[in-house]
Amino acid sequence: MAQTTILGRIGQLVRANINAMLDSAEDPERMLDQLVRDFTNNIAEAEEAVAQTVGNLRLLEDDHREAQSAQVEWGDKARAAARKADEMRGAGNASEVDRFDGLAKIAIRRQISFEQQVQTFETQIEQQTALTDQLKDGLNKLRTKREELVQKRDELVSRAKMAAAQRQVQDAVREISVMDPTSELSRFEERIRRDEAMARGMQEVAASSLEEEFASLEDADTEAEVEARLAGLRTG
Questions:
Q1: CA quadruple 186, 191, 192, 198: dihedral positive or negative?
Q2: Which of 34, 93, 117, 126 is deepest in the core (most CB within 10 A)?
Q3: Which of 152, 179, 206 is the endpoint of a domain?
Q4: 78: which residues sit within 8 A by CB, 6+ positions away?
Q5: What is the three-class DSSP state of 27?
């Protein structure tokens, strides 16, 4: 039956789709969303196959019940014809005995035919029930896998984005290592040192100018004291 292989075929299709997506995936989020959609579509196909199998099982059960009912009905007819034949036999009506015996035999043959149908249907129902249970179990597993995929989607997308960010950081680190900006920093540091030295030089120049002014003031005071003392000597 086609139903017996539907889940296996769907499983192969899902695996093929996953491998193709993983090989060509550029956008993890889109890939996972597409994978969820494919899983959903495959489950819908599996549900249709299982529904068909269940429908066939119900038809077999209906036919089984009808065969059982017909078996009982023809058994009743056989017993009725046999009783009627016995009545005709007691009445000495030989022709009617043969007729009702003939009807009883026909009814018995039909009863046997329906008994065989009942047995055939019972065997088919047993096989179809086992197949239906197998397909339902496989379908439930597919549904469980889909739920797991949906639950893992956000985690996988986050991990994929984190991995991409880490790759970008590593690329940036490699570029920085190749550029080696320390030489540029050394030049900048040297310029700052020259500016600092210039500031110290200007500070020292300013300080020496003040010292000279104070020194000239002290020299003027000293000369004034000398002149004062000289004037005192002259008057004495």
A1: positive
A2: 117
A3: 179
A4: 104, 105, 107, 108, 111
A5: coil
E-only strand ranges, 83-135: none
Give the total number of structural domains in the chain: 2
Q: Are residues 197 and 223 in the same domain?
A: yes
168 plus 193 within the same structural domain:
no
Cβ atoms of residues 39 and 139 within 8 Å:
no
Under a CB-based contact definition with an 8 Å cutoff, are residues 185 and 52 in contact?
Answer: no
Is residue 73 helix, strand or coil?
Answer: helix
Q: How far is the CA of 89 from the CAs of 82, 97, 104, 115, in angstroms?
A: 10, 6, 14, 29
Verify that 126 and 13 share a domain, yes or no.
yes
First to last CA, the chain: 151
- Give dist(CA 97, CA 91) in Å, integer: 9
pLDDT of residue 207: 67
Dist. CA 133–CA 22, nearest whole Å: 33
Amino acid, single-letter form, for residue 64: H
b/e code 76-108 from CB counts within 10 Å (16+ = b): ebbeebbebbeebeeeeeeeebeebbebbeebb
Q: What is the pLDDT of residue 58?
A: 94
Provide the residue type at 220 as one letter: A
Pair 115, 78: CB distance under 8 Å:
no
pTM: 0.55
